[in-house]
């Protein structure tokens, strides 16, 4: 939307399938939970079939309309722009990251139990499926980054692929000083990295615009990709790799300092507050740090403790399902609990249950905090990225600290469940009605 003030929020909230409306990052987000893919496909179908200059049910655009093409959108802060950029680059890969973690967790369990030897071809093929996304992340991130920055995603992907090409990886994975045209620089391994390729594609987007500005259109078809690759691949290796690596290490050092200062407080904070970070949409700032740490160390703490809020939401939903006298509230709570338990999707529970009663935020926070403290005290970590819930179970079971993780889950769920009941007690009649 060019002007978010035009959104009819009350009318949107009144729709049966809508769980809530949230303004964040300069956008108006309509929360519809598990129906999002179906709704998105239908909206896109209607927009694609609409005549030029006219959207479904809106009538033709008028010169005075704020929403016409070319109207100035409200100015966004640099932080909103950063969040929108990170979100656009990473969002397409989140479901694949989760399923990759499930695959890796499942084959690890099978290997540990002796059912599937880790030297067998079957194991190696499945391991390849689970490891591919993280290993080739520079290629995939280059594609979506180029889309976001307005350059060719295909050229962007090839720039990323060049960094993973065997001839280049053969000299960069050593970490030695190498040279290009006599210019010496320190090589770095780009596999599983995030920041260097995003910086490189950001720079490439400006080169792309520059080339299209000065090259005749007849020459652009060949010379834009030719010059882009010729310039950007060496520049990425010599400049953006080291600079991005330095920035990544700087951020990672700060993250590790916070973690190592007090692992209990670190996990308690993530347990209590990360669910709110997700609700505000600013988890995109944290997720790259978590994924980078996981890729580098093979384990990560905050992805475990941060998920405690999800189970706290589940605890609230289960309590409301039992204690509520309102049939619609019970139905919403039960369906939200089922979706959360199965797939770890919390939006129906947050917007359909928790946000209807401010007291439930106390339950949510205390439940997440309790689970986070348990994670911190027991130094619980995970070895694979996955969503919480039944479908992500193999990813969490494969961790050496799986037992303490599930103890933390039980604590988080129980605390939020019983706190919700206690806070709602004055509205419940536990006595049987007199005959």
Automatic annotation (TrEMBL):
<feature type="transmembrane region" description="Helical">
    <location>
        <begin position="190"/>
        <end position="207"/>
    </location>
</feature>
<dbReference type="GO" id="GO:0009401">
    <property type="term" value="P:phosphoenolpyruvate-dependent sugar phosphotransferase system"/>
</dbReference>
<feature type="transmembrane region" description="Helical">
    <location>
        <begin position="402"/>
        <end position="424"/>
    </location>
</feature>
<dbReference type="InterPro" id="IPR003352">
    <property type="entry name" value="PTS_EIIC"/>
</dbReference>
<feature type="transmembrane region" description="Helical">
    <location>
        <begin position="123"/>
        <end position="143"/>
    </location>
</feature>
<keyword id="KW-0762">Sugar transport</keyword>
<keyword id="KW-0812">Transmembrane</keyword>
<dbReference type="GO" id="GO:0015771">
    <property type="term" value="P:trehalose transport"/>
</dbReference>
<dbReference type="InterPro" id="IPR036878">
    <property type="entry name" value="Glu_permease_IIB"/>
</dbReference>
<dbReference type="InterPro" id="IPR013013">
    <property type="entry name" value="PTS_EIIC_1"/>
</dbReference>
<feature type="domain" description="PTS EIIC type-1">
    <location>
        <begin position="84"/>
        <end position="435"/>
    </location>
</feature>
<keyword id="KW-0808">Transferase</keyword>
<protein>
    <submittedName>
        <fullName>Phosphotransferase system, EIIC family protein</fullName>
    </submittedName>
</protein>
<keyword id="KW-0813">Transport</keyword>
<feature type="transmembrane region" description="Helical">
    <location>
        <begin position="361"/>
        <end position="382"/>
    </location>
</feature>
<feature type="transmembrane region" description="Helical">
    <location>
        <begin position="82"/>
        <end position="103"/>
    </location>
</feature>
<feature type="transmembrane region" description="Helical">
    <location>
        <begin position="219"/>
        <end position="243"/>
    </location>
</feature>
<dbReference type="GO" id="GO:0008982">
    <property type="term" value="F:protein-N(PI)-phosphohistidine-sugar phosphotransferase activity"/>
</dbReference>
<feature type="transmembrane region" description="Helical">
    <location>
        <begin position="263"/>
        <end position="289"/>
    </location>
</feature>
<feature type="transmembrane region" description="Helical">
    <location>
        <begin position="301"/>
        <end position="323"/>
    </location>
</feature>
<feature type="region of interest" description="Disordered">
    <location>
        <begin position="49"/>
        <end position="69"/>
    </location>
</feature>
<keyword id="KW-1133">Transmembrane helix</keyword>
<dbReference type="InterPro" id="IPR050558">
    <property type="entry name" value="PTS_Sugar-Specific_Components"/>
</dbReference>
<keyword id="KW-0472">Membrane</keyword>
<dbReference type="GO" id="GO:0005886">
    <property type="term" value="C:plasma membrane"/>
</dbReference>
<keyword id="KW-1003">Cell membrane</keyword>
<keyword id="KW-0598">Phosphotransferase system</keyword>
<dbReference type="Pfam" id="PF02378">
    <property type="entry name" value="PTS_EIIC"/>
</dbReference>
<dbReference type="GO" id="GO:0090589">
    <property type="term" value="F:protein-phosphocysteine-trehalose phosphotransferase system transporter activity"/>
</dbReference>
């Amino acid at each position: 939307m060019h002007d978010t003030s035009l959104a009819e929020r009350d009318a949107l909230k009144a729709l049966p399938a809508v769980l809530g409306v949230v303004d964040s990052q300069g956008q108006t987000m309509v929360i519809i939970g598990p129906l999002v893919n179906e709704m998105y496909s239908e909206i896109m179908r209607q927009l694609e079939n609409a005549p030029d200059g006219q959207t479904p049910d809106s009538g033709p655009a008028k010169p005075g309309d704020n929403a016409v093409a070319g109207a100035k959108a409200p100015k966004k802060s640099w932080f909103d722009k950063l969040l929108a950029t990170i979100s656009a680059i990473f969002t397409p890969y989140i479901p694949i990251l989760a399923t990759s973690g499930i695959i890796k967790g499942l084959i690890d369990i099978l290997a540990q139990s002796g059912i599937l030897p880790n030297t067998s071809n079957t194991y190696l093929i499945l391991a390849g499926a689970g490891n591919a996304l993280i290993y080739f992340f520079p290629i995939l991130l280059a594609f979506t980054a180029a889309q976001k920055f307005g350059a060719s995603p295909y050229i962007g992907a090839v720039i990323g692929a060049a960094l993973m090409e065997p001839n280049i990886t053969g000299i960069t994975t050593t970490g030695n000083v190498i040279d290009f045209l006599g210019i010496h620089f320190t090589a770095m391994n780009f596999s599983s990295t995030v920041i260097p390729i995003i910086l490189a594609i950001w720079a490439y987007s400006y080169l792309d615009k520059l080339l299209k500005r000065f090259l005749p259109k007849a020459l652009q078809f060949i010379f834009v990709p030719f010059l882009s690759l010729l310039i950007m691949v060496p520049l990425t290796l010599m400049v953006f790799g080291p600079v991005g690596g330095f920035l990544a290490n700087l951020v990672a050092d700060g993250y590790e300092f916070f973690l190592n200062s007090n692992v209990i407080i670190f996990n308690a904070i993530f347990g209590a507050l990360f669910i709110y970070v997700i609700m505000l949409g600013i988890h995109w700032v944290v997720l790259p740090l978590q994924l980078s740490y996981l890729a580098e160390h093979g384990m990560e703490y905050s992805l475990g403790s941060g998920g405690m809020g999800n189970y706290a939401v589940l605890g609230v939903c289960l309590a409301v399902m039992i204690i509520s006298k309102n049939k619609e509230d019970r139905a919403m709570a039960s369906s939200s609990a089922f979706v959360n338990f199965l797939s770890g999707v919390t939006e129906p529970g947050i917007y359909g249950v928790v946000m209807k009663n401010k007291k439930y935020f106390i339950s949510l926070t205390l439940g997440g905090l309790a689970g986070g403290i348990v994670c911190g005290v027991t130094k619980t970590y995970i070895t694979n990225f996955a969503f919480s819930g039944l479908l992500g179970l193999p990813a969490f079971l494969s961790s050496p600290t799986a037992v303490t993780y599930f103890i933390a889950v039980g604590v988080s769920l129980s605390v939020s469940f019983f706190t919700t009941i206690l806070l709602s007690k004055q509205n419940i009649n536990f006595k049987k009605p007199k005959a």
